[in-house]
Amino acid sequence: MLLSVQDLHVRVEGKELLKGINLSMEYGEIVAIMGHNASGKTTLALTLAGFPQYQVSEGKILFEGEDVTSKSIDERARMGMALAFQSPPAIRGIKLGHMISLSAGMNPWQPKPGDDPELPKKILSKVNLEPEKYLDREVNVGFSGGERKRSELAQIFAMRPKLMILDEPDSGVDIDSLKVLGNSLQEYFRTEKCSMMIITHHRHILQYLKPSRMHILSGGKIALTGSYEELMPKIEELGYERLIKEAANE
Amino acid sequence: MSDEWRKKYRLEALQAVTKRSAYGNDIDLSDFVTFPKGGADLDEDVKRRSLEVGVDLEGKKGGTYFQVDHSVLLSQLASRIKGVEMLPTDEALNKYEWLRGYYWKALSVSQDKYTAIAELRQTKGYFIRSAPNEKVDQPIQACLYIGTGGVLQAPHNIIIAEEGSELNVITGCTADSRAKTVAHVGVSEFYVKKNATLVFTMIHSWSDEAYVRPRTGVIVEEGGTFISNYVMIKPVRDIQSYPTAHLVGNGAKAKFNSIIYASKDSIIDLGNRIYLMAEGTSGESIFKVVSTGTSKVYNRGQIIGQNRNTKGHLECRGMILCPTSSITAIPELVAEHSDTELSHEAAIGRLQEEQLHYLMARGIQPEQAIGVLVKGFLDPGLPGLPERLQEEIRSKLALLERKSSPQEPC
After folding, report:
1. A22-38 core/surface letters (b: 16 or more CB in 10 A; e: else)
2. Domain coordinates in residue numbering, chain B
3. What is the pLDDT of residue B148?
């Protein structure tokens, strides 16, 4: 098993935001996490990535069988967990090309033998960002929504992770960018067989990456679990609130 | 140099030898000597330190002026570069009588005890002049090096960019790591003539025990541009400087960019003053600083708008890495005309945790991530500075990326 989340309770500034999450993921599996705003989706993503303000008060996270609950953000990343941020910060003075090299574990200012200096270029092409234009751009500075999401993908592709946690990769992007994002993720999944946890509100991105399972979060808990074929039409028909209510009544 | 014509400056200086500077700690210079025994040779350490401040003694990069303590060791003069002349100041003053008209004209010899001492105990300095309408591609490099402990170095530098010329000067000031307490009170006078451009880049790399009081005056004539790039990333005992630019000709421009990494217990008090004297003049000062250790940084800035259609902007961006260090921004805007537009912007804060976590989420260890962010924050992106020089400054900042760690600086 790649990931096992057991009875996970998380507090932020004293307030409990996750109230006992249990889920698991296999190698090469795609899982979708859906739910209305403030249901705990991003909290789950940032807790898995190890952000210290998200304090685990109960439960644990196992990655490849190892307890990572108290490991730092960078340790988890180096173990193979990569988070694509929903709203990544802009960083002045750091070039996107350098950030991609750093994500790949290289030091762009002090290359070692064996480092591939062409890697940033190759990866930018994979996400349809013209290298000539984007290599020297400062990370996320003045980027549009779609450009930010593509820059996120470029960085986590460079990490060659075992698990991608994609926090709303399809929010705030236009239809063209969605296509690019969907196709590049699809291609990456096909070639690398990397597991993906996709957090989303909509079905859009899931048309490219069909999950084997979906979890619907509500109030910091998993309210419903099912297959894409089973749950997606119901979400679209009833919305999260009614679907969860009806499921509870059943 | 005991010429009669200098007598008035010496007399004036004598009146000011105890006059405290308006800013900074008062340094007692009486124990420093101006004529030490011996002196440093051009050994490997000297070469290495010179390279650190961007001066290549192999002389591949342009004209080179090299002063150790008080002796000019190397002066591959401007015969090599068309359109530029470079001489030790005392020789130039003997050679050209007209140069006396530039001596102590951009600042006053009686400004404070440091200008006074620089006159009374002067130790060489360089004179650089670009001929009219010459666009000098190669940067001219000068290095002032203190190789002996207990030495006071007091050079008097004069740069003249003649009408329509373009001149790019890189000066490195450094002290031998083996030399204990040293002092530097260099005087610099810059004259930018009509439609000329002078880009002056100063890289300071002093030692932990260096007391530094440079005094600089700039006069920019009609349509002229003065750009100053100042970089200091090594610790210093105590530095205070407040270069002042006088924009006397219509449409003249001045821009000061400063990049400071303040570490250990350095005391750094730096500012720029720009007088927008003529019509249509504009001035800008951008100061970026990262403070660590128990360093104390003061950034002063003053722009005085005195004529119509003038514009000035002051900016201070500070990142404070250690709670034991401090950064104080003191911007002053003085409008003496109704048609002047002056602004300032200052933002000082700690390293943004969000950015640090972002880099860590890419697997970058926190020590390296801080170094990368600090480097990014200080990244020169200096307008008017050739890309090659930008890269040189970046490569110096890259040292920070390797050295910084959250434990070390605090």
Report:
1. ebebeeebbbbbbbeee
2. 4-351, 352-410
3. 81
Residue A35 region by backbone torsions, left for phi larger than 0, else alpha for psi between -120 and 50, else beta: left
Look at A102 and B362 and tell me if their CB atoms are within 8 Å: yes
Chain A to chain B Cβ contacts (< 8 Å): 68
- Count of CB atoms within 10 A of residue A109's CB? 18
Question: Is A137 at the interface with chain B, CB within 8 A?
Answer: no
Strand ranges, E, within chain A:
3-12, 15-25, 30-35, 55-63, 66-67, 81-84, 91-95, 138-139, 163-167, 195-199, 213-218, 221-226
Residue-wise pLDDT tens digits, A88-123:
999 988 999 999 999 999 998 888 999 999 999 999
Mean pLDDT by 10 residues, chain B (410 residues): 81 93 92 60 63 61 65 57 88 95 97 94 90 90 83 93 95 79 94 97 88 97 96 92 98 96 94 98 96 95 98 95 94 98 95 94 94 85 66 70 51
Q: What's the pLDDT score for residue B188?
A: 97
Minimal Cα–Cα distance from B290 to chain A, Å? 14
**Topology of the domain comprising A3-249:** Rossmann fold (3.40.50)
Would you state the pLDDT for residue B405?
A: 45
Q: Nearest CA to CA, how far is A250 from chain B (Å)?
A: 41
Inspect the interface and report whether the beta carbons of B358 and A85 lie closer than 8 Å: yes
B179 in helix, strand or coil? coil
Q: Structural domain boundaries of chain A? A: 3-249
Cα angle A176, A41, B365 (rounded to 5 degrees) comes to: 85
Closest Cα in chain A to B400: A109
Tokens of residue B249, six digits: 């000709």
Which positions in chain B have a beta carbon within 8 angstroms of at least one beta carbon in chain A? 352, 354-355, 357-366, 368-369, 372-373, 375-379, 381, 395, 398, 401-402
pLDDT score recorded for residue B406: 44
